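Researcher: Quick sanity check before group meeting.
Model: Go ahead. Protein one:
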Amino acid sequence: MIYTYGIKHLAVRGLDSASFLQLMTESRDAISRFIKEHKVEAVYSKKLEEFSTALDAFQEVFLTNSSSKTIQSLEGADRARDAAVLTLSNLVRAFSRVTEPATKAAYDTLSTIFKEHKVSVTDSYEKESAKINQLLGALAHDDCQQALASLYLTTYLDQLVAAQATFDHIYKLRLEEQKGQVPSQAKILRAQLFELYNFFVDFTAVMTSAYPDRRELNNLLKQLNVIRQRYKKCKSLKVDEEEKVPALDA
């Protein structure tokens, strides 16, 4: 849709929290003006109400977290384990077309495990930890250890184990700092905002394509694109917008 409907590419999920918050705020303001000035589809108003509620909550959490060194460390540890699990999965996937019997057998063993234990890096901290620990438990079996060794991937498994252990340690520190509150609220709100924001951009682009004579839709899409362009050079948290560990071919 990025190319078909004229949406300017932006790795929204990769923006740091401050840039993400500003992008969401500016986009909300543009959509609010659009709704006030034009007779538009009811879905815009309905979704904007949800968007505003989530954005206000995210801003409150952001302002609270911005003064905490622990939450900054926790976000960094979360990104590190995301990178580790994606790296391991992608390296396994790289062997999917190899036909040499021993290598194919090792790949088949590991691909089955990754299919059974899918990890989504957009999940809450707690849910992602549970999935990664389940994956690590499965990969600890002798047949998986042999498969990893035969593909020279043991080092990357060790990196994932270390990254998850670091995250667990910092997570416990954050729990103590928050006196029992759940630290993943910001991540959950960010995911909600990401989905709602994508809806506005995609829906506006589709409507602009379907109704080219509606100048107000075209103008809104242009405004959203201008805003997106301002954040292309902002500090990025991740290389891409991978949401899940890629599925491995059988």
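Researcher: Fine. The other one?
Model: Protein two, sequence then structure:
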Amino acid sequence: MGKADFFFDQMLKENSVQGRTKTTAHHWGLFAASGLLMVTMPAYIYVSPMFDIPVLEGASQFLGVGLLGGMLLSWAYRSVSLQRQINWLATTPPPKANEKVAKKEREEAMAAHEKKAADVCCAYALCTVNISFVLLWLLTAFYALPKFSTDVSSKLNHLLSVLGPSLLLAFKATAAF
């Protein structure tokens, strides 16, 4: 592949819908904070008398599961957001281009349109992945694992019921993308 072909491919990629969709640092921070919050919330139930895991004894597990599950959910948020953003930009017409408007103003309008799409799709990803995680966590922790075996320890229940849905959502979102 020559230099001209490489630059032509790069130009096509940058000007395509997929080339224009990016995950900003702001969205990554939002995804990380939300993912960490979602996977650490079940820890409150696991330290309650229902599961009775001592806080100090389970702290390392809560931290490890929280960090790994948070990273997995962040990846799921990103994948869902980008997929939705690509669909949005492909189906929603860009701002009307007026011949009297300067090229710079048209580019600014297009950038604002893409930023709005990114923000809306970020909110959509947060809502859908969070709802899916909570439902899968409840199903796993209180139905599937107790039905599988009544002798599942609280620590193993926590590990499987938090990381299982996180892993499933990350892989499902990536496969759909």
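Researcher: One line on it for the slide.
Model: The longest helix spans residues 103-148.
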